[in-house]
Design brief:
The chain is α+β, with helices and mostly antiparallel strands and 659 residues long. It is 17% helix and 27% strand.
């Protein structure tokens, strides 16, 4: 069933064209014949317009301070419209506005998709803007939200989603650049697939991968993040700023390739700082780049061409002033949006920190095994265990009396002495983590004749081999799992670890899944975020989530819904499964004998950049895999632990498939 939040009439953020007074413009007006620098301080815009050689004097525009939810507004860009009297203001998730120096402010952006996250109150919040681009005349506007590109041809007043034929369905979009003049030319940067370009305004797209760095380093299958893009001074040359210390590359559309720019100190991968180049722009023949570390660079865009002198005040402000989001000079607009990192809802619970854990079978805690288990934990200097209390079949292993759970036939089958065992472990100083499989659950799948199962396109319950998946868009499915987590909390565990917090994966471009409980405009990542947000309200002990290893180091949110940056907002701990033997495509193969170390080291560094302040506690491999082609041995775990240590990650979980 599709559900659309009701729009309350008269609410400003519901795309209404309300008007507020533009106050505090200061004594200085915009002078588009010179230079103008824009700074964002929360919802306040500060700007300085000045001529060559003059001293900049800043003035304030406070119109957006009067808007609802103004304390959460994040301004990404300010674009002077050709009239010289109006500004276009792009925000992270509060929409696009036109501000008039004559005294008005109105919201435009009809057609941008709303955020659909629990508790589903209509606040007019859009899905977060990851990247944007504005043409020279201000008429064409491109907006990237998670996994989608929206284009406007009327100055941001109305948007339509671009189909981008030729871009794979699961591709995660990170950046976009419109050619300043050519209406057909568009560049799109991705999280791991390279760069796409379109010559027909986004209807179709072709891929550029040649020259892009990634893993494995010699012939990458996993391309480095294309975090920012801009065109050069013609219709062929472009520039791309990379993530994770990859530096800046110059590309050619006709050549179908990119090459690294010769800029000392900009490439810090793999052993240095994993910074992101969040903005690249051409101004007067120079490439101006911003980063998420507040480090800025000015480079010669083309060493073979002489550049015009850059105004001293622009150079000094750009290199030294915090909060600069835009520069307008000589008809050229440069944008330096802040890096996108989803706002955390709370600080990670300190009770979850400092844990070194072993995943164990429950039988390890019974009879004579218990003393051996405690001895092993003491020997390894471990202080935590992970126990499977809701398994892959949906069986709950503690006593339960909540009718939300007991109405599901066969769902409860407690372990022997489970409550006493939890108390005993805690008495011995062991932190108990309850593993809870969420959305692969054959008991709930069969409940009410499959009412809550994922469906196939004909409406029958969806099957993926032996796996039986329930619909993670369903609020009843969320409530059921939250009720289970509360029962684990009552049983005395210290932490809930949600596993299989995802949708069933598919291969190829054909999607045979149907989700009956999906709300209009709701994405998979929003469904999982909604579940976690609601769980956070109902559970008082720390929450953690398991993720596929690749999903913690690359953003593939609409493949199975696991977007580490979005989901980390609502949990205390992220536990990616960093098993070197499971990394496909020769990942880190270029490091030879150090492959295991670099697999863990690089994975942790990437995950720390993406997990937004949540605590990182990876699963690491403590088992042979298949024919042991990975040369698992005593030193293997040592290499993994050294990778964790070098990346600054002191917590971890050992997992063995026999435990």
């Amino acid at each position: 069933m599709n559900r659309t939040p009701r729009v309350r009439p008269g609410i400003f953020f519901a795309f209404a064209m309300s008007v507020v007074i533009l106050s505090g413009c200061g004594r200085g007006g915009l002078d588009l014949r010179g230079h103008t620098v824009f700074v964002a301080e929360g919802a306040v815009i500060r700007y300085a317009s000045f001529r060559e050689g003059a001293t900049p004097r800043f003035h304030s525009i406070r119109a957006m301070k009067g808007l609802p939810d103004s304390e959460r507004i994040e301004i990404l860009d300010v674009f002077p419209l050709p009239s010289g009297k109006d500004l276009m203001v792009v925000t992270r998730s509060h929409g696009i506005f036109e501000l008039s120096t004559g005294g008005g402010c109105r919201r435009i952006d009809r057609g941008l998709p709303p955020e659909v996250i629990y508790p589903f109150r209509d606040r007019g919040i859009t899905k977060p803007v990851r990247a944007h681009s504005i043409s020279q005349d201000g008429k064409r506007v491109a907006i990237v939200v998670p996994s989608a590109l929206y284009l406007s041809r009327d100055g941001g007043h109305t948007f339509r989603r671009s189909h981008l034929d030729g871009v794979k369905r699961s591709t995660e979009l990170l950046s976009v650049a419109l050619h300043p003049v050519n209406e057909g030319l568009v560049l799109i940067g991705t999280a791991s697939n390279g760069i796409y370009y379109s010559r027909d305004g986004g209807a179709t797209a072709r891929l550029i991968k040649a020259g892009m760095p990634g893993e494995p380093v010699r012939s990458p299958n996993f391309i480095e993040e294309a975090r920012s893009l801009c065109f050069g001074d013609n219709e062929d040359t472009f520039y791309v700023g990379l993530g994770n210390g990859g530096g800046i590359y110059r590309g050619s559309l006709s050549g179908g390739s990119v090459a690294r720019m010769d800029a000392p100190g900009t490439v810090t991968y793999p052993d240095g700082d994993f910074y992101r180049v969040t903005g690249v722009n051409i101004l007067g023949g120079r490439l101006m780049a911003g980063t998420n570390r507040n480090r800025r660079m000015i480079l010669e865009a083309s060493p073979s061409k002489a550049s015009a002198p850059l105004d001293r005040s622009i150079r000094e402000l750009f290199m030294e002033r915090d909060g600069i989001i835009a520069i307008y000079s000589g008809g050229t607009h440069c944008s330096f949006p802040p890096d996108y990192q989803p706002r955390r809802e709370f600080k990670p619970d300190r009770r979850a920190l400092g844990k070194r854990a072993l995943y164990i079978s429950y039988s390890f805690t019974q009879k004579d095994n218990y003393a051996r288990l405690i001895g092993l934990l003491r020997h390894l200097d471990f202080n935590a265990v992970v126990i499977n209390l809701k398994d892959d079949y949906g069986t709950i292993r503690v006593p339960v009396d909540d009718p939300v759970i007991t109405r599901v036939p066969g769902s409860v089958n407690p372990y022997v002495n489970v409550l006493q065992t939890i108390r005993r472990l805690k008495k011995d100083g062991i932190y108990v983590i309850a593993r809870q499989v969420c959305f692969q659950d054959e008991k709930l799948y069969a409940y009410k004749n499959g009412a809550y199962a994922v469906k196939n396109l004909s409406g029958a319950p969806y099957r993926k081999g032996p796996e039986k998946w329930v619909d993670a868009f369903s609020e009843f499915v969320w409530d059921y799992n939250i009720a289970v987590a509360r029962e684990f909390e009552k049983a005395g565990v210290d932490e809930i670890q949600f596993d299989y917090i995802r949708f069933p994966d598919i291969r190829g471009e054909r999607d045979g899944r149907r989700f009956d409980f999906r709300r209009t405009h709701q994405t998979m990542r929003e469904a999982l975020a909604s579940f976690l947000k609601k769980a956070r309200e109902g559970v008082r002990i720390p929450l953690s989530i398991d993720l596929f290893g690749f999903n913690a180091i690359y953003q593939w949110g609409e493949w199975i819904g696991q977007d580490v940056s979005e989901l980390s907002r609502y949990v205390d701990v992220i536990s990616p499964m960093f098993y070197p033997s499971h990394y496909t495509g020769g990942y880190a193969a270029g490091y030879g004998a150090e492959r295991v170390f670099y697999t863990i080291f690089l994975s942790c560094k990437r995950a720390l950049e993406l997990c937004g302040g949540a605590h990182l506690r990876p699963y690491i491999q403590a088992f042979y895999y298949r024919d042991n082609e990975d040369n698992y041995c005593v030193d293997y775990i040592g290499w993994e632990l050294e990778g964790l240590k070098r990346a600054g990650c002191g917590d971890y979980i050992f997992w063995n498939d026999l435990s």
